[in-house]
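dumping this here so i dont lose it
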């Protein structure tokens, strides 16, 4: 984070002096938001919308509708990051794990080449990318500790939701699985033997109780599912490879298979859930109901929390910019020291004030100085 300061880029002393000044548009406690920050966010937003296959007028309309919230979102994130630091949330360990996992999935061992790859993929310098990831971990930590933990549901509320939404819990029989995949593609006989041994070791560790999601994240060669702890989409009967379906279909929850040989490697499966056809019982869907209700309540709870942070924050916004999350009654008027009018505006008043100050500091011999007085300066 940057402190209150104008950010200036100066050429070396021997060259002609050129000052490039970033426009500060908002002050949030001890940090700032610049016009460049908002430009950066606008470009990211446009990229996200293009990835949703929006173009032409549809793209412009979507961009215009979201532009009004760019400053609000920046302020929100900055307030959350500041709160996370104030709470002294420890996120470095998680940050290092995420960066290590990203490097593992990139397949690039050399640190400098990996950093170059991150810049190429993200469009940001490595340190900026890492810093943004750390900030997001801080935001997530604050949301979890300060908001999510305080949203509690009574059993009766969950049961009432179940009764009112039974149609949502009608199930076809399906199974939820996680996988660890060890590839043998392109490997010689010796390497294939090592892959088989690795798969057997991982299956044994999972059966002994090691967390399957962690084993998948750290060892699976399927990068897409490894990132999600090996989680697969739910399968209905007859929609899987016959050898895989036979291995898991009648098995209980938490069952872990031995490695199953496929043409391109070995797969280990774990049964997370197995729902039978018909109306799911309340016990089966209690966690799902709680998550649904949490998602319904979270936006309002998060906005209320951010309003409280805004109320106590030092917040100034430059004219021409608007915070769509502004709190009623909160003064965010921009106070530029260069624009403040002095309280003494005439030479006579200035001389009078100066004369009084001299007499307060150096009394005339033989006179007394009052112990009380007033000053126009603050």
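and the seq i came up w/
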């Amino acid at each position: 984070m940057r402190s209150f300061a104008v950010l200036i880029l100066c050429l070396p002393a021997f060259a002609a002096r050129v000052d490039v000044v970033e426009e500060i548009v908002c002050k949030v406690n001890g940090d700032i938001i610049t016009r460049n920050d908002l430009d950066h966010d606008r470009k990211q937003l446009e990229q996200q919308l293009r990835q949703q296959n929006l173009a032409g007028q549809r793209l412009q309309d979507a961009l215009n509708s979201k532009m009004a919230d760019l400053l609000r979102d920046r302020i929100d994130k900055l307030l959350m990051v500041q709160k996370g630091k104030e709470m002294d949330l420890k996120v470095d360990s998680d940050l290092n794990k995420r960066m290590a996992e990203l490097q593992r999935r990139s397949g690039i061992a050399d640190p400098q080449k990996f950093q170059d790859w991150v810049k190429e993929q993200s469009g940001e310098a490595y340190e900026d990318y890492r810093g943004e990831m750390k900030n997001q971990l801080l935001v997530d930590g604050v949301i979890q500790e300060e908001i999510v933990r305080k949203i509690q549901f009574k059993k009766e509320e969950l049961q009432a939701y179940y009764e009112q939404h039974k149609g949502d819990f009608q199930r076809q029989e399906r199974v939820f699985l996680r996988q660890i995949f060890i590839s043998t593609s392109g490997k010689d006989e010796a390497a294939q033997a090592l892959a088989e041994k690795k798969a057997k070791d991982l299956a044994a560790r999972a059966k002994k109780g090691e967390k399957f999601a962690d084993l998948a994240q750290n060892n699976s060669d399927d990068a897409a599912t490894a990132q999600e702890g090996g989680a697969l989409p739910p399968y209905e009967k007859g929609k899987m490879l016959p050898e895989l379906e036979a291995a898991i279909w009648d098995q209980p929850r938490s069952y872990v298979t031995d490695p199953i040989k496929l043409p391109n490697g070995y797969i280990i499966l774990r049964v997370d859930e197995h729902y039978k056809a018909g109306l799911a019982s309340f016990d089966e869907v209690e966690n799902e109901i709680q998550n649904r209700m949490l998602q319904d309540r979270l936006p309002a709870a998060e906005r209320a929390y951010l309003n409280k942070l805004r109320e106590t924050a030092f917040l100034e916004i430059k004219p021409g910019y608007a915070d769509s999350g502004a709190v009623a009654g909160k003064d965010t008027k921009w106070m530029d020291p260069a624009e403040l009018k002095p309280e003494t505006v005439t030479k006579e008043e200035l001389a009078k004030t100066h004369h009084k100050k001299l007499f307060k500091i150096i009394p005339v011999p033989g006179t007394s100085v009052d112990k009380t007085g007033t000053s126009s300066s603050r």
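Confidence is low (pLDDT under 50) at residues 1-19, 342-347, 349-378.
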